[in-house]
Design brief:
- By secondary structure, the protein is α+β, with helices and mostly antiparallel strands.
- 31% of the residues lie in helices and 20% in strands.
- The protein has 10 helices and 14 strands.
- It has helices at residues 18-25, 41-48, 68-71, 74-88, 155-158, 163-189, 206-216, 228-235, 243-252, 295-300, and strands at 98-101, 106-107, 110-112, 135-137, 142-143, 145-151, 194-196, 223-226, 255-256, 262-265, 273-277, 283-293, 306-316, 322-326.
- α4 (74-88) packs across α6.
- The termini are far apart.
- The relative contact order is 0.17.
Length: 329
């Protein structure tokens, strides 16, 4: 039975995921074919307290703190805005094959040994030995890095500002976390990639990129990671000036190479490097807890010296799916 207007909200609901806790008390399925269909449990609580978080008619930040119950909603609002900013700025989808959620500060990844055997399976004759692939836990731990910031402000400084404006600020905080996590991922990829021989010429050529494409085989070269200035040089190659590639760039801002790989800029790359990977199997992302907030501070002290952070780590899955083209400076 729908009861969203009578739920007792409390800080303990943040022990796990707040919306999940709300959904257990007030399942969205109960609102099928009602005016509230399509809202999740958190959005129904915003409606309960008449809190508008977006648009020109959005409420002031102080609206969350009109009662002890409505104040409990504030950390979830902050979390969602930060997550949206991370999503909007996310480039990890271009390089991460899989994401693993853990509940510990360290992680021991899988290690596929006998690398090279799984690339080419030889024919197995009668009574012959079939190739053996050994998969075991790695002896190396992946340590997670905390990325985030401390919000140094006061409730008095923010209370009269509109939530729509504050959402923009929170999204940019999330975007910066996403950019730092992307840099962390690229650093892992730069850890001992296989090198590619190239033509002895001064500038990068289309033939160099084709050699990189061939070197990654039998994996599929679907992502090129380069320094921003090097990306400009690559885009100036005549092979990149075809009509379909230009239309895609103007429509989406995504740069697709003539052989189908996505061109991704990274400040971690030096001007003499082009990193080519198969994003389907090169890198694993490990995360613990998603966006981490000091919910008690956000409820009791209304933003004063509260931290917003995220714990992530990265590790190779198949190192052979990552190759480096080194250029002369």
């Amino acid at each position: 039975m729908a009861n969203y207007e009578s739920i007792n909200l409390e800080k303990g609901m943040y022990v796990g995921d707040f919306t999940t806790a709300l959904e257990k008390i007030d399942p969205s399925i109960n609102y099928h074919e009602t005016p509230l269909e399509g809202m999740d449990a958190f959005e129904r609580q915003l409606k309960r307290f008449d809190i508008r978080v977006s648009g020109s008619g959005s409420d002031r930040i102080e609206k969350f703190f009109q009662s002890s119950d409505s104040a409990v909603l504030f950390p979830e609002y902050v979390s969602r805005a930060v997550k949206q900013g991370m999503k909007d700025a996310d480039m990890l989808d271009n390089i991460v094959a899989t994401t693993t959620q853990i509940e510990a500060p360290d992680y021991r990844p899988l290690n596929v040994e006998n690398e090279g055997v799984y690339e080419f399976y030889p024919e197995v004759y009668e009574s012959g030995q079939i190739p053996e692939i050994t998969i075991r836990n790695s002896s190396n731990l992946v340590s997670l890095k905390k990325r985030g910031c401390l919000i140094s402000t006061t409730y008095e400084a923010l209370r009269f500002h509109r939530l729509d404006l504050f959402t923009v600020v929170l999204k940019q905080l999330g975007a910066q976390i996403a950019r730092e996590q992307f840099d962390d991922a690229v650093e892992v990829l730069l850890n001992s990639p296989r090198s590619v021989d190239r033509d002895d010429i001064e500038n990068i050529s289309y033939n160099d990129l084709l050699k990189l494409w061939t070197a990654v085989w039998p994996y599929k070269l679907n992502t090129l990671i380069v320094a921003p200035n090097k990306m400009i040089e690559i885009m100036r190659l005549k092979q990149f000036r075809d009509s379909s590639g230009g239309l895609n760039f103007h429509a989406s801002g995504n740069i697709i190479t003539p052989f189908g790989a996505t061109l991704v800029p990274s400040a971690k790359m030096s001007e003499d490097e082009v990193l080519g990977i198969d994003s389907n199997c090169a890198l694993e992302m490990i995360t613990a807890g998603g966006v981490l907030l000091e919910s008690n501070k956000l409820i009791d002290r209304q933003l004063e010296n509260a931290t917003i952070s995220s714990l992530t780590g990265f590790t190779h899955i198949f190192p052979a799916a990552c190759h480096m083209l080194t250029l002369p400076l």
